[in-house]
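Good morning C.,

I know you're traveling, so I'll keep this short. The sequence:
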Amino acid sequence: MNNLFKKIERRSASIYSQKDKFWLIVWFGILSLTLIWNILFLNKPALDLVIEGFLNTLYISALVVILSFILGWIIGLFVARFETSRFQILYFVLTFILNIIRSIPQIIGILLGYMGITYLITANILHNHWLIMTTMALIISLFIFNEVIDLIRERVNHFRKLDFYNAMKVCGISENRIINFDILWKNSRIHILNKLIAIFGSAIFLQCTIDFIISVGLSTQVSSVSLPTTLGSLLAKIDSKQDILAIGNTLMNPSYFSHIFFEHLQGVTVAFLIVFTLLAVYKISNGFAERNRL
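The tokens, ready to paste straight into the viewer:
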């Protein structure tokens, strides 16, 4: 029995020292407790909305990560190849287009893209729920994938300065294999994974911000029908806003604090899920970088 306790203690200490794994477990644990609390005290229609909004938010953010990775990897390879090839004109054209995208503020660019999605929905061109969310993810990824390209260029340029790059080229190994396998896969996949974790957090933040702006700024006819439910759109609903205002009321009336987690549970839960998930992703990203000494 003592050996069992010692193993558990060592295992716990090991997990705690690895901050990314620790915060991943904490995130899942707190989410589970939040779900149980809401099942007990939140009415079923509101609970279904919160669960749907949370899952949609995670789905879109995960899709943003996948699309950003694919776009960033493919275009990053073209940029890296054109940079040292005889096709310099293609390199300048491609970097010019990327710099134009980079110069557009992310919030404004995504907001314009969402307005386009809303138009396509009202014109009955987009009507499938999953296709709408995929299009939303594509819009967000267009203003994030430059981060993946920058990382790929940085890693490729770093290894091009080392002897092994020229040595492998002299041995007749193709540049595509050197970049894709030896540089990016063998020596940079940890860096890329860390970047994708950070992109996941950025996608959640941008998505919630834009959904909140659209839900508040557009007419209720457009915003409620057009876009799928997310945490950002839920936060903009009148019930959630009243719940958030109730938190401010506790500053003047501290005795009201106990009512928040029963009478204003929807808005408090939505706000908590956004803030805590962003905090957890930030801690996981930092812990992953620290554990792998990036």
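Safe travels,
E.
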